Amino acid sequence: MSSSVLMRNNVKILGEGTQYMIFAPGFGCDQNMFRFITGHFAKDYRIVLFDYVGIGGSDSSAYMPERYSSLSGYVEDVLDVCSAIGARNAIFVGHSVGAMVGLLASIKEPDYFERMILIGPSPCYLNDPSNDYYGGFDQEQLEGLIQLLEQNFMGWGSSLAVTVMQNPDRPELASELEASFCSIDPDVALRFSMATFFSDNRKDLSLVSVPSLILQCREDVIAPVAVGEYMNRNLKESEYRLMQATGHCPHLSHPQETIDLISEYLSHPAGSNRRTEERGNHG
């Protein structure tokens, strides 16, 4: 089982430490997106990189539409990887929907994880005015995104990449993200996008027991500041940092700030709750 999982999810393990640090990509991204930050942590941690089935260098023949029609399939990918490597008390670094996948995995198997690093997380992308929740999108916007994917896949990839990345002064970043999106099989992209953008995991936040750090970017269209603040209010043991970084991918656009904030968080013992006195005072 373990060797097949490692091949299925294109798992790469490196680094000199003993504690695992597992990096989970966001929607439409592979493990290469973390290349600017993993080197810093390789001296002290055992770095684990992987791709979700259907993405990057994973085994595409293992893709099962019914499994990956919801986030639960991606949660199982994470749990399978953790089981295969024998993870215990790992540091989990998840970007975007990868952050929520990690939180859901921690609810099922909390012993796998010591702490969660959540980069641009969102439990729900859909606005819910009746409950005073602003996720960033209304129903028509999300349906339009799906329609564009179905009718003009390349145009969808280009449009979404620009929206996600922001940082217009560095167009090469959006170009890289566009290439990543457009490298996915359109059917896989459609199911993953629907599983991501139409999920609502707000009620699951109260079930999370693993301490977490929320890294929130400014000018993030995908996960606005209000969402990061919501996450911080509803997770039992969390710390919140409003970054100087803009957009939705600080590990690409602002890697040093991302490294600094993760390092600062990990320099304190797990479970030391400093959320009140240090909430959002960075930047």
UniProtKB/TrEMBL annotation:
<dbReference type="Pfam" id="PF00561">
    <property type="entry name" value="Abhydrolase_1"/>
</dbReference>
<comment type="similarity">
    <text>Belongs to the AB hydrolase superfamily.</text>
</comment>
<dbReference type="InterPro" id="IPR029058">
    <property type="entry name" value="AB_hydrolase_fold"/>
</dbReference>
<dbReference type="InterPro" id="IPR000073">
    <property type="entry name" value="AB_hydrolase_1"/>
</dbReference>
<feature type="domain" description="AB hydrolase-1">
    <location>
        <begin position="21"/>
        <end position="255"/>
    </location>
</feature>
<protein>
    <submittedName>
        <fullName>Sigma factor SigB regulation protein RsbQ</fullName>
    </submittedName>
</protein>
